[in-house]
Write a structure and sequence with these properties.
This protein has 2 domains: 86 residues, 3-Layer(aba) Sandwich (Rossmann fold); 134 residues, NAD(P)-binding Rossmann-like Domain (Rossmann fold, 3-Layer(aba) Sandwich). Helices cover 40% and strands 16% of the residues. The protein contains 10 helices and 11 strands. The strands form 3 sheets. The chain has a 6-stranded parallel sheet with strand order 1-11-8-7-5-6. Strands 3-2-4 form a 3-stranded parallel sheet, sandwiched between helices. It has a two-stranded antiparallel sheet with strand order 9-10. α6 packs across α7. Bound molecules: guanine (GUN).
């Protein structure tokens, strides 16, 4: 069993980006500038956004964090996005999801100008991704998983990939990327969801499993074939009073019992999480280069 170390792989990607940014700065070129919008006080969202902003600082990007109260009106949020769209200094815009129920996520995503949509959630970027176009921004988590497979030279061509979860952010784009004619890619993909029958049997036939449903310990050892590659996207917070933070992170995979059967497996934390941030930084760099 080999651990797919997302922390280490992400650090290697970030080190390269840091050098690329320094070179741009030395050449008098614009350095990437990410604007992140956080609405409300959800603890997990606060942690994710803080981590994105900190990573920007560590690799020489500029960043602006814009925080709104939970009761901000949709109109005001959309106005802020339009202002950032027009601000020539800003290269990438991200609005941390989920948003409060009174704000329509679809409207927010579609207001971000596609050339600054570093989360890759705008329908134009999703369309470009489906067409396999190189200028698409790819959603950060699936992109991070593709980078993790690539950097660790995990063979995917001709393999049966089973993805559990069909969210717009992870499962669905993942199914497209793994089925693309690319490396990594060229998988035969099965996309499972809450209405799927015989999910255990389908998983047992998988060479690669991507678990992205947000249900701690869902993938158990009896669902995993000997030698499978298992990617765990789950990061549910579970109350744990023995920790200083008051919680621990739980993946969608029963790691302890599944790991011995795997050829490769990602840990939680330290697997997909850091790769998501590295992928976002790559998208922000690309936005900056293409806009300037
Ligand atoms: N919420 C969960 N994942 C993501 C992500 O990749 N981007 C944003 N903006 N919000 C998220």
């Amino acid at each position: 069993m080999q651990l797919l170390d997302g922390k280490k792989t992400a650090q290697s990607i970030l080190n390269t980006l840091k050098i690329d940014v320094a070179q741009r700065a030395t050449a008098g070129k614009k350095v990437p500038h990410l604007a992140a919008i956080l609405v409300g006080t959800d603890g997990a969202s606060q942690t994710y956004v803080a981590s994105k902003v900190r990573t920007c600082r560590e690799i020489g990007f500029r960043s602006t964090l814009i925080e709104f109260e939970n009761d901000i009106s949709e109109v005001r949020l959309l106005e802020k996005i339009e202002e950032l769209n027009e601000n020539m200094d800003v290269d990438g815009i991200l609005v941390q999801l989920p948003l409060p129920a009174h704000i329509e996520e679809k409207k927010v995503i579609e207001t971000i100008i596609p050339t600054k949509d570093v989360d890759g959630f705008h329908p134009e970027n999703i369309g470009r991704m489906i067409m396999g176009e190189a200028d698409a921004f790819i959603p950060a988590t699936p992109y991070g998983i593709m980078l993790l497979l690539e950097y660790n030279k995990v063979a995917t061509a001709g393999k049966h990939a089973v993805i559990i979860g069909r969210s717009h952010i992870v499962g669905r784009p993942m199914s497209i990327l793994l089925s693309n004619n690319s490396n990594p890619g060229n998988c035969t993909v099965t996309l499972c969801h809450s209405k799927t029958k015989n999910i255990s049997e389908i998983c047992l036939s998988a060479d690669i499993i991507v678990a992205a449903l947000g249900s701690p310990g869902f993938v158990t050892e009896d669902m995993v074939k000997e030698g499978a590659v298992v990617i765990d996207v789950g990061i549910t917070r579970i109350e744990d009073k023995t920790r200083k933070s008051g919680y621990r992170l739980a993946g969608d995979v029963d790691f302890k019992n599944v790991a011995p059967k795997c050829s490769y497996i990602t840990p939680v934390p330290g697997g997909v999480g850091p790769m998501t941030i590295a992928a976002l930084m790559k998208n922000t760099f690309k936005a900056c280069v293409e806009r300037n």
